[in-house]
Structure formats: C-alpha cells, structure tokens
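ugh finaly. both done.
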Amino acid sequence: MFSPRRILLHLVSWSLAPTTILAAPDPTYNPSLPFRPNNVTGLVDLYSWVGSYYNGTTRIEFKPLIGETVNNSVCDNQHDKELAVEFESLLGVTEKLLNTSQNAVDSLLTVWQQDTNFSSWLSAETPSLRPSIEWFLESTRGMYQDPVNHTYQYLGEAFLPDGLNYTLAPTKHAPFNLTAKVTDNISGPGSEPSGYRLGNFEVTLPSCKPGENDQFFITIISNEWPGIDGWKWTDPLVNLQFDSETANVTLSGYYAADSSNSDSGSDNTRGQITISFLGFIDTYHSDILVNNSASPTWIRTVGFGNNSLNIGYSNHASAASCAGSRVTSWSVVITTAVLVVFAL
C-alpha cells in the first residue's frame, strides 16, 4: 500500500545485484528479438530488454474537485489541500516488444516500496504479481523469455493492443518526446476487460475528520465512471521524454478516490491527478542510446562485454560470438512503461 512518506533520491545509478558473471556465449540468443542474452547472472527480469533504464522518484499529486458525485462537495479538511506522495521508481525505455506495434519504443514505469529485494523476484513474472510493486504503467503487455526452455511468451492475453499508442515528435536527435492518450482503460466496479489497464492503487490521504488519515483506493478515470455524469473530465494523457542521461514521464488525468473506512462515501472524492517521474540513467543496466538518430536506437552492450560500465562486463564480447554479425547497433523496428506502461 502507498504511504505518505517522501523519498528524496539523488543517485545517478544503483547496483541491484552484488555479483555478476558474463558466462559462455548464449546459444539461444536471437538478435531479431528485443531480449538480452542469457549469459549475465544477476540480471533480474525487469532488465530483460534492450534499452535504457532510469532510476528516480515518482510524485503523485491529487487535487480534489468534487465529492463522490457532482452533487457532493469536497469536505473542508480536503478542500484546497496539497495531497501528494513520492516513491522510488524504475523506468525502462526499450525496443518494442510487439512486431505489430506502431510505437517507436515501449516503456515500463514501476513504483515500488523502499528497500525492495530485486534478487528475490522470479523470472517471467508480471509486475502486478510482485507484492513489492505499488503501481506500474506499461505501454504494452510484457513479453518475457522463459529461462528454462528459452521460449518467448506473453503474460496474460497476448493479443491485447498497445495500452499507450505513442506519437513520436519529429526530431533528428535526442531527447525524444512521445505522447499518448489513454482511451481504453478498465474502469468502474464490475466492468469487463476491454483492453488496457492503468491499474489501481491504495494511498494514505487526509480524511474529512481533522487530524486523521484514511486509506483510499485510487482509480485513474478513463472511459466511464459511475456518478460523474455532467462533470467535465478528460482521458489521461501520458508524456515520455528521454535521452542518454535523464528521463521524464508525466501522466495527467482525473481520478476517483474511495475511502476504505467510510461506508457513507462522505470522504470519497473525484479530481485531478498528476503522476510525474524524474530519473537518471542507470548505466549499469543500460545499452547505449544513439543520440543522433531520428528514432530511438540502441547499441547492444549488456551481455556483449563491450561496455565496461555494464553489469557482467568482460574483456571479450561473449554474446557477440553467438550472434554472428550485427553486433554494433540495433535499430528499433517500428519501436513498459517503459510500460516498455514499462506502467512502469
């Protein structure tokens, strides 16, 4: 659950694995796919894909505008209050996972508890199954490599469309700027899956009783929500900007907050929500982003032993020997988050 702690993060990169080894060449490596070779120990599955990874902080801000319906007002203890929480986060911006995708990249933004033990996570495990994850934003359904039989698979429904249909602003170089409107969320109690899920989360916010807090169940509104007929709201808008040093993700939209401690609904609110991520490149887990390209492109380095700053660095390009040619660079084939929205 969310808690109202604030975490000020100023690190440029972290190491989540204490020891790593670049092993023998990976005979299962397929250079046509967006996966890294399986020859680096300690590389947990959130770093499975070719791309750039950023460590930083996600700030979530709430601005209550109405009560449970348009006929209810916000109570005095919540009215005109700055309601915000911050969490440590990881953003992955990668080559696209779906061949059918028209996105230039995929993205996955994950918001997680402090002091998370990444080494305890299993492979091929969707973020929503990890108890340490508070919330995630992914651009498409995750595709993973099975570490045992080396097959590639999607988790859940494999043929769901992209959750975020990114539009890449025209450019000749980094930073890259992408935007997407979310119009196919699963919203409202009892609604049937219709495509993309922004996900729900819990957060501690002030209740209507002075000096007291409640746990609120937060839903980002898209499509429909009961009781808000006549209230002017818009679908969520996501913006992603990144280069070889920093990345920003912003989600602007509207939310429904339902208190877990109020049967009458008097504490429930609807209003504006802004989710902002600011992160710095994690060179330990990142391939090299080509800055002078019109579309995001990476030089594959993790698992190839050609970048001394990477996890599992070795003096010889071990994975390259099994990949044959095409080792120097890899273009995104139009491309979580993040998700990859990574969500995260």
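ok and the 2nd:
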Amino acid sequence: MYTYLFKNDSVRTTPVEIRAALTEMYNQIMLYGNTIVLSYNQVTDSRAFLSGIYSDDSYEAIMNLIRHGKIKMNRYFSAKTPSEYMQNAIAQYLNHDNPGSFQFSGLPIETKESQLEENKMRLMDVADALRCSDPWLLMKKSKQYAAKGDEREAKRYRMFEHYVQMILLFSMKEDAYIAEKNPEEMGRTNRSLLDFLLLLLKDFETEKCEFTAVSARNRLEACKLIRDYIKQNQRTPKILCGRSNWYHHLRNLWDGAADENKVNCRKAIAFAEAIIDICYNFTIEESISIVLDHDIEAELLEAMHTELELYWQDIASGAHIPFCNEERYVKAMEQSFLDAIEKTDVFRDFRKADIVISDNIHQKKQTRKHKKELHYEVLEGEHSENMRRQQKRWIGGILKGIFWNIGIAVFYIVVFVLINKMMGLAQSLFEDMFQRFAQLSIEIVSIIVFGIVNSVIAGCTHVPDILDSIKRIACSIRDLHYILQAKRATKKCEG
C-alpha cells in the first residue's frame, strides 16, 4: 500500500519531530511493507526527510529505497521536475529585491542576514550542479574546503552534493512519480485547502462538536479568526488556498495581540495554525491518486480530529513550534542542518530496511521475472510472516558467508605458512655467510611471493583475496547484527 505521512511536513522542524518522522518512515516501510509518497514540499523542504539524506549513516540506504520504489513522489498538478523547481526557486531568490524574504529551510544554510552574500554564492553552486546534472562540482568544492582546513564548509558542500543527487534521482527516474488524480475517475474535483477548512469549521462551530483537545472558547476563537480572513478575501479564493498566505496573516495577528489578552489570544492563533496545517496535509493526501480516499464525511472528520489532537499535543508540549510564534520559530530555523543533525540509531535503521528490501526484490525477481513493478502485495499479517522467513533466510545466508570467508582466510594462512617454510629452508643455506642480511631479505621475499600467489589465486579462480575475505567477514557480522535488531523490532511491534 501507499501512504502519505503528515509527520514529514516541512513545518515540523524540531529534533523531536524529525526523529519521530524518520521512525515512522522506517516503520511504514520495514514493518508494514508500505510505500512512502512524498509531496513536492517534502522532497525539497522537509527537515525530517532531508536529515536522512544528509546523514552519512542513512544516505545510501534512502537513495536505494528511492531506486527500489519504496519512496516515491507525488506530482501534484505540476509538470516540472524537482530539479527545474529548485533551479527556478534559486533564480527567484538571486534576482529578488529582498532575497531575505525567501528561505531555503531544506538546505544547510544559515538564515541570518549577515549570511546573505555567502548564501547567494552557495546557491549558485547548487544551481550549477543541478543545471549540469553534475553533483561532482559540489564534491570538488568540498574537497577544496577540506584541504584548506575549513571542515564546516566542507561538510556543507557534502550535504549539498547529497541533496543534488537526491533531486536528480527523483527528476530522472521514470517511475519515481505518482500521477495526480484524474477528476473524471473520481466523479468530482480535488478539494482545496479552503474546502477542507470550511468542512472542519462547520463541525467545530456546532454545539455537538466532540473535539475536546482545546477549550470550546479557544476553538471558537480560532474558527472566528479563520472566518474573518475568508470574508476579507472571498473575492480572491486563490489567496485562501495558499498556506503561506495564512501563515503571514496569523503571524501579524500574533504580533499585534494586546498584552493583556496575549496568552488566550495567542493560544487561539496557534490552534488556528494547527487547523490550517492539518487541512493542508489532508489536501495533499487527497491529491495522491493511489492513497485511500475519505469519501464518507463522518470518517473524514474523525480522521481530521485524530490528527489535529495529536498535532496539538505536540504544540502544547513544545515538541512543535508554530510559525506564528516568530521569535521561537526564527531561532529554531537559524540552526543550520550542519548543527541540527545528531547521531541517532534512527539513521542506521534505514540500512536494515535497505538490506531487507533489496533481498526481497532479489527473491521476487527470481520467482516473478514477468512482473515489471515489484512491491508488497500482502496484508499486514502476511507481511509479518514473510518478514520472519526473510530474516531467517538472511541469517542463514550471512552465516554461510561468514564460514566461507573464514575458510578462504584459513586457506591463505596455510599457503603463507608453506611459503614461509620454503623460504626458511633457503635461508638456512645462506645462514653461515650473511645471516642477518639473508633473514631480512628472505622475509621481504616471503611477503612478495605470498602477495603474488594471493593475486594469482584470486585472478584465476575468482576467489576473493585474504584482505577482501576479512572485510567480507566484518561486513557479514555487521549485517547479521542489523538483521537481528530488525527481527527484535518486528517482534516488539507485533507484541
């Protein structure tokens, strides 16, 4: 099945939210066999998703999941590729009279005004790499900064390179997109942000409303704030369908709140923003052609209540910072990805997912070669059973590989001992004449002869040499550790 995750929304920027979103992505792919569908906004600007791209622990694994079709992208009424979208956005930033009004929260750049000129140069480098489809330009700059001792800038350009590689992969991979819904097939047009807002307001303004996460007073005040803005712009509904317009309106209300009413008024404003965020995500979700529809209004309202209640809990606990709280939000956004990404097991978990999904695809290619698209087609219970069989097969294969490589290593040790013994006999012949020189020479020759024999055996028989065997043993032990961890995680989830 395909799923769209609200937790990947670009406005969820705190470390707690990033960790929760990455964990949910891993669980959806690994434990439930689902395919993640990202929106344009999430691909280019989601701090959670991009943290996984920027981390060396998870970058290759997530890129492989994209290649395998376990992470896809929703086109959403646009024929542009992510590469073209980003190039146009950077061009607008560079040509705008007030470049500070544009923010690339998904890129590892600081948002301080003192960094504007440096950011222009960095973004020009990113645009050049996208235009030429050549991420090596960014890696080259990273190496240049590293040679100068500027590790921070070198790290920044490594992240740029990861970002461009991901954007180009989505742009060039033919089956990376999920087509937008066809209104004729649905029997109606896609609902807009305004449509979802009006639906939720209608429910919240009734006396029978069962939503209790906030007081009735704050709920009704938030509804009034939204209604007033709708009335102001009823002749220009396009404005009401853009989330950024709502954000700037609510931030103005937040800043203008009277001191004596600041606490209650700002709580209503923050709740109004939460309503807008949830309605925005339902709008995006409904636009995805293969994600389940909420055609029954009662079920849709129940789902919206559930998501809104969870979201409001994050706001109340401080896990989420509302955009309208400019002081806290700007301070959070000023923390670059260079400082925000922390070492966590969540990143390494994606390597387990990559291992298992890759093996799953390999097995399906062997048994169903006639199918072009490979994806999970089982119910959750069947998927869990397949996962257990898959893990057992992997453990067996890894143990077999370990014993095989140990055998190869032992074989090379025997060869080395034999060569050493032969050289010892040669050394004894010259022992009386120049013992020390002969001993050193024989040891050097032994190493050279062993290296030659090792290379000849590896070249003629395709058996890995001793160094590769030792590396493979280490990799097999690491993979076994990952699979056993995934097995425990599966049992814990099922329990």
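summary for the 2nd one i guess: The chain is about 70% helix and 0% strand.
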